[in-house]
Amino acid sequence: MDIQSIAAIVLLGSFFLMVFLRFPIAYAVGLSSVLCLVTLGQNLNDVCRLMVKGISSFSLMAVPFFITMGVLMGSGGISEKLIALANACVGWMRGGLAQVNIVASYFFGGISGSAAADTASLGSILIPMMVDEGYDADFSTAVTITSSCEGLLVPPSHNMVIYATTAGGISVGSLFLAGYLPGALLAVSLMIGSYIISVKRHYPKGERFSIKNFARQFVKSVWALAAVIIVVVGVVAGVFTATESAAIAVIYSLIVSVFIYKGLTWKGVWKVLDDCVGTLAIVLILIATSAVFGNCLTILHIPDLAAKAIVSLTTNRVALIMLLNLILLVLGCIMDMAPIILIATPILLPIATTVCGLDPIQFGIMVVLNCGIGLLTPPVGAVLFIGSAVAKLPIEKVVKATLPFYLCMLIALILVSFIPDISLIFPKIFAGYVPVLG
Questions:
Q1: Which of 14, 64, 94, 391 falls 20 to 30 Å from 269 in CA-CA distance?
Q2: Are residues 2 and 100 in the same domain?
Q3: Does 418 lie in the same domain as 306?
């Protein structure tokens, strides 16, 4: 066995061992990379150089800005307004509050970009409200956590910025546009599942639809929704870059939260910024260590070896695409979202584009949706644990109630995987994007 094979075993073996031992993922990525470089006899000064290089990216500056924007808007009193707007849209349906939960998550996701923030913010309001109206607590929680994944697809999503940077050469604006229709597809599939269950269990309807009420709630919510327009339209129109738009969005969010909605005081702003620093520290150290890990993968030619191994199993395109989804779903069960994007993208993207003929943007949407499902699956599903904590229910009961919604999400995933225009139609129409097929 040559030294490169031994180093590959050390890299991947030590990484997965530390993941199963519940090491913090950034440490697992960094330590396994160091062990690999030691095995190869490389200079460990390369570790520091690669870590600094990994985060020395202008486009990556958008990540902390988008996270800060989401936290400011999420803490600024907009949750109730978006819930009221969603209620005006779909509250009249059977199981109206469940539908409101799903639609509100679509609106809120366009502001926070975080499934965890969606679950914590909307869940703390809607789960007790649904229970008081006669909905089962486990059903209410299942609807909340699954619909929160819409926010990962609806721009501005900092995870999409991470994918675009990792994949290299992908337009963030086109990727943002690509998320709208898959996010809507996911919402519709969850609404259909919720409606079927609501009819079966005789959950209540809300008030009849009123144009006047809808218009009133839309006016109240327009300041929050405008943040998304500023970011997406500004980037797509070429007025400013994703990083510049994110910085502008932070200032706008601060003004809206403090002076218009008045959900935040200046003291509260400092607390929000303090919370952001903790989140950003985790994200940035993970990006830095993943740069070293990615370098090790390249040195050892692991992406090429993975491609050959996967293609050796089957040459059927449908089977290969399903296999890529399966790999991402399994990774989602044991890892958080950002590390999957940072580690799996360099390995799987070449297979997706050259072997399966998938466009990089379409594959990016697949990665994000797979990771979203992973956030709801034990043993590592962060959003699953947050939902369980908010509802004060055992994990097992929440997982059981979520099973029908897993099916809805998988249907959406399959449609996204095999119908390219679900992801690509908006980038082609509004950004002049030309698909890059293998």
A1: 391
A2: no
A3: yes
Cα diameter, the chain: 74
Q: How far lies 153's CA from each of 226, 264, 355, 364, in Å?
A: 18, 27, 25, 10
Contact (CB, 8 A) for 207 and 91 = yes
- Is 173 contained in some domain? yes
- Residue 1, token pair as written in the block: 């066995």
**Which range marks the domain in which residue 276 is found?**
43-430
Residues 115-170: pLDDT tens digits? 877 787 788 888 998 998 899 999 999 999 999 999 899 887 888 888 998 888 78
Cα–Cα distance, 82 to 138 (Å, whole number): 23
- In a domain, residue 10? The reply is yes
Q: 268-297: per-residue pLDDT in tens?
A: 888 878 878 877 787 788 888 888 888 888
Whether residue 57 sits in one domain with residue 38: no
State the CB neighbour count (10 A cutoff) for residue 114: 26
| Structural domains counted in the chain | 2
Contact status, residue 209 vs residue 93, Cβ threshold 8 Å = no
pTM of the entire structure?
0.85
